[in-house]
Amino acid sequence: MTVQRPLELSSLTKVFDTPAGPHVAVKDFTVRIAPGEFVTLLGHSGCGKSTVLAMVAGLLNYTMGGIILDGKEIDGPGLERALVFQSPSLLPWMSALDNVMIATGQAHRTKTHRERKELAMKYLDLVGVAEYANQRPAELSQGTQQRVAIARALSLEPRFLLLDEPFGMLDSITRAELQDLVLELWNQSPRTVIMVTHDIDEALYLSDRILLMTDGPEARVGCDLKVDIPRPRCRRTVVDNPDYFRLRNEVIGFLEHHSRQFDKDKHEKQ
Q: pTM for the full model?
């Protein structure tokens, strides 16, 4: 059995070229993420959370530093990392099943067409939307589309599930349902999850650790907060846990401090 190593982000830095000159979006972002850990990136809008996730996914090159997986540096996308965006990003002319089969076709090339179809149906069923397999995205609700997107990501059978505000466009009821779905899937088959969110309660409900990011430019990990609430979790046990409000207040205090600091720095520059 292969022993999985931590995912290591070492002094990760991203500089964008802009008309006004170089913009250092993220600087010296360093963290180790253990196999099977659920980690959330949280911070103010524009602090570089999605930039970090895109670099981990291999969709964005980093300027300095490195991302090390199994002793090797990541330098592009890989099937061991699956990304779910805020928007479902389904191909509109294809059915839900065919959208998932794009992924099974990439990840399971040695399987027959029938086997890849069965695998796609398995994951549509797992997320509760098998009955919509033959419908196109326009015929589905936003929440159902996002379930299809999650099924597509899971059908790659990745080691890492990367979630970029996956519930941000959903109403509160659907958002809660999909939070529960992700938690249930993670409980069934723990894999490493890195999620970007603005929602403090969502982060506390789902995460083992919350990485609080400082405001940009030159954003970094400002606080690495361990969520010691026991698993398995449900909403009631999380809210009733004596550590819940302490953790929540720590997050709010961090964000308020950096918001004040950002306003002060902005005022001094004017």
A: 0.92
